[in-house]
Amino acid sequence: MRTDARRRRRGAALTAALLLAALAGAGASAAKEESAEQPKEGADWQSWHVNNDAADLASVQRGARNFVSHCLGCHSLKYERWSRLGADLNIPPTLLQQALLPPGDKATEYIQTSMPAADAADWFGKTPPDLSLMARARGPDYLYQMLKTFYVDPTRQTGANNLRLPTIAMPDVLSPLAGLKRAVFRDEINAAGAHEQVFDHFEQLAPGSMSAAEYDGFVRDTVNFLDYVSEPTQTARRALGVWVVLFLLAFTWLAWLVKREYWKDVH
Questions:
Q1: Which residues contact 226 (CB under 8 A, 6 or more apart)?
Q2: What pLDDT is attached to residue 235?
Q3: Residue 165 needs a FRET pair 20 to 30 A away by CA distance; which of 39, 48, 138, 184 works?
């Protein structure tokens, strides 16, 4: 009887061990399938959204700093004055003069780049565009995707290319922050039966001074600033719009009361 009991215990233990092994194998298989289904870095770049908010004053202030430090050397904001920027972003005149204004510029002047147009055309093949209305013309998501999808391309004169704007003339000026990365493409057959190269993922070649999260915040702040510049009054307009709608609702109610008073004898 003891022998039978031992056999039963051994059988139960063996069954439990096999069951645990099966569950572990199933779990590993599920984890493998789940990891295989995860998109690679950058594979879904066309669905990236910046979700910016021009009313976020701190973000717009950081974006102004980013623009002056990394963009003003080539790009202008010809419809924005330094004084207007300082007033909208609550930047004291002294700090505006010390931290943002280029040497020799006055707060009453428009924000202009110091790069001569002729030199820019010689260096890049075209004059860098003014960015005053770029966020309205292209959309904040477009700018966000463009600044996040630069990659190393030895065939280009600038050594860089871009997924959002292929054959871009702009060099990857933010590579010291984001680092260098290579775009990996895969060969696919399109509907016409021809082979084409489709972007698959990015491969980091060299790190930058910022982590991926820090660089993402840098780009979001910069795009937020460009969105503000495209319409400096948008925050005030949206705040005023609430009161306008409330006034129209109240006026509609009063008009309905007057109409009912005038027509009460007719009905």
A1: 63, 67, 131, 134, 135, 140, 143
A2: 81
A3: 39
Coil, strand or helix at 231: coil
Q: From the centroid of its chain, how far is CA 267? A: 59
How many domains does the chain fold into? 3
Q: Confidence class of residue 4 from pLDDT cuts 50, 70 and 90? A: very low
Interatomic CA distance for residues 189 and 106, integer angstroms: 57
Give yes or no: residues 261 and 199 share one domain. no
Side-chain half-sphere of 136: how many Cα atoms within 13 Å? 10
Instruction: Let me know: does 183 contact 202? Beta carbons within 8 Å.
Output: yes
Q: What is the pLDDT averaged over residues 6-17?
A: 45
pTM confidence score: 0.76
Same domain for 112 and 214: yes
**Mean pLDDT of all residues in the chain?**
84
Q: Give the range of the structural domain holding residue 101, as residue numbers without chain letter.
A: 45-232
- In whole angstroms, what is the distance from residue 230 CA to residue 133 CA? 5
44 burial (CB, 10 Å; 0-12 / 13-18 / 19+) is exposed
Are both 248 and 155 inside the same structural domain? no
Structure tokens at 250: 């109240």
